[in-house]
Amino acid sequence: MQDCTGCALALCLALALPLLMLLVAPCIRKFIAGGKCTSTAKLNGKVVVITGANTGIGKETAKDLAGRGARVILACRDMVKAEAAASEIRTKTGNQQVIAKKLDLADTKSIREFAENFLEEEKELHILINNAGVMMCPYSKTADGFEMHFGVNHLGHFLLTFLLTECLKKSAPSRIVNVSSLAHHGGRIRFEDLQGEKSYQWGLAYCHSKLAGILFTRELARRLQGTGVTVNALHPGTVASDLPRHSTIMNFLWKLLPFLLKTPQEGAQTSVYCAVAEELGSVSGKYFSDCKPAYVSPQGRDDETAKKLWDVSCELLGIQWN
């Protein structure tokens, strides 16, 4: 009798579980999707540069801003994918001012060439979105000998921003948006081993690089006070993208639990918010998630570390940025 009762209970549960999932799935999806940018701001006549805009949240951000009328430049390493993305965005938005340009953030020569060409061809820059990044790479170095996460996620965008800052100032009011991550909470700035040559773990290397982005945002905001240029950082959420392509485990989890991930369009919302929201016109040096202010780790609020990282970054790149 007990066996029959147990079988009946198991059958009821088996039948009820799918129904329960159907009922709660919309609630789960709404929670995962997070905040949405509700601004209706138009960007006609504005010039935007977005790094890594050929895929994922960068592409969705480009699509949104192009739909608002901006001239959008997709700054990407893979020009085949970039041209395809630009063509798709032009078709979907009807905005023909969407252009793909070569930019490899793992090579300072490429960064300088991109900036030089941009400044020759464009008179203004109103929004710079430092979106591109690498995640969980096996240990490797950039063309200039920097550890890949630190070199691309931090130093590459540091140099690009340096080269374009005067144009941003002349175009003010203008904005810089740095895509960081909640992972910055796990990061530390190890000045004695910035290149990971003494100790390297790919997950922590990503965290360290994202913390560097938070500190860069904080120090840059301080230095840009009174210029009409603002800079803010953000966490896009956990997004279904090819960013964790170097990790077999993460790729497996991404495919196993897709309903727990934001779509690229959902992940782009906070980037768009930081780029266009009217209420952020004078807000600078802050960190956002789901289109609202978010908590920054104690190490991300360390002004002395931010200043030292600034100086060390300038030294590594051979630039003077006062």
What can you tell me about this protein's structure?
The chain has 322 residues and is of the alpha/beta class. It contains ten helices and eight strands. The chain has an eight-stranded mixed sheet, sandwiched between helices. α2 runs parallel beside α3 and α4 (108-121) packs parallel to α5 (148-170). The chain is globular and about 50 Å long. The mean pLDDT is 90.
Biggest β-sheet description: 8 strands, mixed
| Structural class by secondary-structure content | alpha/beta
- Write the H/E string, N to C: HEHEHEHEHEHEHHHEEH
The gyration radius over C-alpha positions equals 21 Å
Given as residue ranges, the uncertain stretches (5+ residues, pLDDT < 50) are none
As a percent range, the share of strand residues is 5-15%
Placed side by side, the strands forming the largest sheet appear as: 3-2-1-4-5-6-7-8
Shape: globular
* Ends apart, CA distance between termini: 82 Å
Mean pLDDT: 90
The tally of strands reads: 8
Number of helices: 10
Write the layout of secondary structure elements.
Blueprint: H1 2-33, E1 47-51, H2 56-67, E2 71-76, H3 79-93, E3 98-102, H4 108-121, E4 127-130, H5 148-170, E5 174-179, H6 202-223, E6 229-235, H7 248-256, H8 264-267, H9 269-276, E7 287-289, E8 292-293, H10 303-317
Parallel strand pairs: 1-2, 1-4, 2-3, 4-5, 5-6, 6-7
Antiparallel strand pairs: 7-8
Helix pairs in contact: 2-3, 4-5, 5-6, 6-10
In short:
The chain is α/β, with parallel strands linked by helices. The chain is 48% helix and 12% strand.
